[in-house]
Design goal:
This protein has helices at 2-24, 29-55, 61-103, 120-144, 185-197, 221-224, 251-268, 309-312, 330-339; strands at 151-159, 170-174, 202-205, 233-235, 271-272, 276-282, 285-291, 322-325, 345-348, 358-360, 363-365, 377-381, 384-388, 406-414. The protein is α/β, with parallel strands linked by helices. It has 2 domains: 2-144, no CATH class; 152-414, Metallo-dependent phosphatases (Purple Acid Phosphatase, chain A, domain 2, 4-Layer Sandwich), CATH 3.60.21.
Length: 415
């Protein structure tokens, strides 16, 4: 696989170099030589990075991830550039074939064509470089700034049965922290501070503390343990919290990883709800908080259905308002609404808004909408509400473009 990958990278680079050479041929010699030198130096470093990632055991998993990400962004941009290079090659091929046919019937002088001030090849090569620069710049910008552009999104939800003592209660929500994707602790502290400045009465964490394994969370406990609220911090697990996204040496090692996950929530000071419920009580009134393990749609080894509402729900029947924490929003239509019509509010995450979106006034678009019916924000069906948090961290691509990381503040009011 390594040999094939190296060959593919070199072929892409050779084709890309064609555009670089054509676009820079009229430049000053120093600029031209520097550009070409930097290009091939980057190519050589990319090849060695691939060899290192595939063949060498890198103990620093985060370094491995970043090498893969940089290579992916770089070569995605180059492949987009190649579209224009191939168009130019096809154009030149047609011209050569046309000239060859004409030379058989006409004198060569009659078929000579003058090149414009900027030749078509040079124009297409420059266009190719611009086209390749757009994703390279955009994806880099999404990592350097978009990943930490934390926003507090506020909602007011009116519930007819909300007890008077809870009228105006502020619910804070954070979801999909994915500590394995985090890399700027100063910015992350700032994100946590944004939520704490809102002084929520209770905070809910709706799953995916990590991306691959629990040890990712160790360095970030001092940051996320700062999430505190007068009525407590409650949490549930997400699909990434079970260690299903890597191979384990033994079943015991995987089991130990999940035990460490339970311990991490405890260390953070979060009350982890594993198919169970709690009550918030104040002024003689109470609310029911239900929490289930991950309940997902898709391959069971990636999106397990460990969530059991039949265990979490009993005992909450008489509570005037019920709030459910369930990581995956597909749970809402699949089971919650059809079978538990008196769960007033469900809080979810999971989608990340695909970390990509376009926001123009009231119009919002994201590729997430083609997979998830409910993918970001507030939804209502009858007297039931679902809020889908866009996530705090990232998965795969460690950045965000037009889909800023979110901290949610929901105020419940009596209708």
């Amino acid at each position: 696989m390594t040999a094939g990958g190296i060959l593919l990278m070199l072929l892409v680079d050779l084709y890309t170099y064609q555009a670089i050479r054509t676009a820079s041929h009229a430049s000053h010699r120093l600029v031209k030589n520097s550009t070409r030198g930097i290009f091939w130096l980057t190519s050589i470093l990319s090849v060695f990075s691939l060899i290192w990632v595939v063949l060498i055991d890198i103990s620093n998993e985060k370094l491995r991830q970043w090498l893969v990400i940089v290579l992916a962004i770089l070569y995605f941009s180059k492949i987009l550039l190649l579209v224009f290079v191939i168009i130019d090659d096809i154009r030149r091929g047609i011209l050569l074939a046309n000239r060859f046919m004409k030379k058989r019937w006409q004198r060569e002088a009659e078929v000579v064509e003058e090149e414009p001030f900027i030749s078509r090849s040079e124009f297409l090569s420059r266009t190719a470089i611009v086209a390749g620069s757009v994703p390279l710049t955009g994806l880099s910008f999404g990592i350097l700034t978009g990943a930490h552009d934390y926003r507090v999104r506020k909602q007011v939800i009116r519930l007819p049965h909300l007890p008077k003592a809870f009228d105006g209660i502020l619910l804070g929500q954070i979801s999909d922290i994915h500590t394995g994707s985090l890399f700027n602790k100063t910015a992350i502290r700032g994100g946590v501070d944004l939520l704490m400045q809102e002084k929520p009465d209770v905070i809910f964490f709706t799953g995916d503390l990590v991306t691959i394994e629990t040890r990712e969370a160790k360095d970030y406990v001092p940051i996320f343990e700062k999430l505190k609220a007068p009525l407590g911090v409650f949490s549930v697990t997400g699909n990434h919290d079970y260690g299903n996204y890597r191979e384990w040496s033994t079943p015991e090692a995987k089991r130990k990883n999940f035990e460490d996950m339970l311990a991490a929530h405890k260390q953070l000071g979060y009350d982890l709800l594993m198919n169970e419920h709690r009550f918030l009580e104040t002024g003689g009134d109470k609310l029911a908080i239900l929490g289930v393990e991950n309940w997902g749609v898709g391959p069971a080894h990636r999106f397990p259905k460990y969530g059991k509402l039949d265990l979490a729900y009993p005992g909450t029947e008489e509570a005037p308002v019920k709030i459910l924490l369930s990581h995956d929003p597909t749970h809402w239509d699949a089971q919650i609404r059809p079978e538990y019509g008196n769960i007033d509010l469900t809080l979810s995450g999971h989608t990340h808004g695909y970390q990509l979106g376009v926001n123009l006034g009231s119009y919002t678009w994201s590729p997430a909408q083609y997979r998830f019916k409910q993918w970001a924000g507030l939804y209502q069906e009858g007297n039931q509400y679902l809020y889908v948090n866009r996530g705090f961290g990232c998965v795969g691509y460690p950045g965000r473009i037009g889909m800023p990381p979110e901290l949610t503040l929901i105020q419940l009011k009596r209708s």
